[in-house]
Amino acid sequence: NPGALWGARFAGGPSPELAALSVSTHFDWDLALYDIAGSHAHAAALAAAGYLTEGEERRMHAGLDALARRVSDGSLRPGPDDEDVHGALETALIAEVGPELGGKLRAGRSRNDQIATLVRLYLLDHARTIARELLRVIDALVAQAEAHPDAIMPGRTHLQHAQPILLAHHLQAHAWPLVRELERLRDWSARASVSPYGGGALAGSTLGLDPQLVATRLGLSRPAENSLDGTAARDVVAEFAFIAAMIGVDLSRLAEDVIIWNTREFGFVRLDDAYSTGSSIMPQKKNPDIAELARGKSGRLIGNLSGLLATLKGLPLAYNRDLQEDKEPVFDSVRTLEIVLPAVAGMIATMTFDTERMAELAPQGFSLATDVADWLVKRGIPFREAHEISGALVRLCEQQGIELHEATDEMLAAVTPRLEPEVREVLTIEGSVASRDGIGGTAPVRVAEQRTELVARAQSA
Ligand code: ARG
């Protein structure tokens, strides 16, 4: 096998069974352009250390550029005998610049330090794409909040009516975790910006190559401090997979709210036709499939993370071939987010709210009972007692089948004379939300202030 990177000490080529198990070109070809970038940097380090003449270095870069063009236009693909992206590209380089020069590039590097570097480059690039798409979901939530600054909805805990809140407050509550994901991606990027190149197979290189030169050329901040750690650690991949899974979970919770709001029973939102699907049998159906797929795909994002952690657990130092199993799950997480995020952004941006229905339901289920208790507290009554009084009023109203604001003066007085008719001033949803004006509360002024802060945080992440 002329393409093999090893073989001299073997009596024959690999068995077909081994080749079938070992081959990784069907997924690691996604790293081809990063592999070539690594080779450019490595060639520069070889030249700087005197292993390539100026002319050789020039021809090497030109050859690598030619490979990059052919990878990009699809004319260069791995062959059936290629084990991995590294071998396939070395074969192609030798065909391009000849065996004499092409055979020099492998000096002082191993596929182990290469792959550990390339996977970082790949993830750093995709972290930027994912951040951009996350920002679009945040923008969609913020735009909807801005378009409905005063709309009031029932706020729930345990999925039961709890207290009235602003729709904008709820939408922004879904945006904040996504802002934190942006911040996590930024923090992760700083940690990921390390180059294992130069670590060789595990113990470092004898050739006196400058690993900082390679790191700088690759846009990474510094070389790995420890060659064993550099080649064998994959926490950088697992941490990325965690962030991807966490984003999946955030989107899933948002999706679940949309699915519930979209039911006939709730009737809070209508999804745009372009972002809903129909049924093959029931002509009337309009389904929230984007939300369901976002919710469903969070399962596979979690699976990718768990699978990766299971692969890493128990691996002795340094490199083991098990580490090849890091790529498919994390590549899948990247692809999954890159298709889910734009769909969710579009669904959120185009959905319309039935704010009248939300406002009508907001005071139902005695959701203003806390406001009654707080009103009493402001009149000097201990909260414990105020809670009891408000609870007694709820029970009375429930018996009569009416809501709190419908209680007559006589009913209020029957509970306690301290419940004067003025209590009705807090028994409106507008009064209730406006009064929750502490930092982070649902009062319109606070929610607007919060939105400014949210946008600033998202933009600086
Ligand atoms: N394909 C391997 C991986 O993904 C990199 C090659 C290292 N292979 C080896 N036999 N040392 O980790």
Secondary-structure topology with pairs:
Layout lengths: L15 H7 L2 H4 L3 H17 L5 H19 L12 H13 L1 H4 L8 H37 L4 E6 L2 E7 H26 L1 E2 L15 H7 L4 E2 L3 H6 L2 H27 L7 E2 L18 H24 L14 H24 L1 E2 L1 H7 L7 H10 L4 H18 L8 H7 L13 H7 L8 H17 L1
Parallel strand pairs: 3-4
Antiparallel strand pairs: 1-2, 5-6
Helix pairs in contact: 3-4, 3-9, 4-5, 7-8, 7-13, 7-19, 8-11, 8-19, 11-12, 11-13, 12-13, 15-16
The chain binds arginine (ARG).
The site of arginine has 10 residues, from helix 7.
Organism: Microbacterium immunditiarum
InterPro entries: Arg_succ_lyase_C, Argininosuccinate_lyase, Fumarase/histidase_N, Fumarate_lyase_CS, Fumarate_lyase_fam, Fumarate_lyase_N, L-Aspartase-like
Subcellular location: Cytoplasm
Number of separate helices: 19
Helix proportion = 55-70%
Q: What's the CATH topology label of the largest domain?
A: Fumarase C, Chain A, domain 2
* Amount of beta strand: under 5%
Largest sheet: 2 strands, antiparallel
* Overall 3D shape: elongated
The secondary structure category is: mainly alpha
Second-tier CATH architecture of the largest domain: Up-down Bundle
CATH H-level superfamily title of the largest domain: Fumarase/aspartase (Central domain)
Bound molecules: arginine
Mean pLDDT: 96
Poorly predicted spans: none
What is the first-to-last residue Cα distance? 49 Å
The topology string of helices and strands comes to HHHHHHHEEHEHEHHEHHEHHHHHH
Main sheet strand line-up: 1-2
Count the strands? Answer: 6
**Cα radius of gyration in angstroms:** 31 Å
In CATH, what is the class of the largest domain?
Mainly Alpha
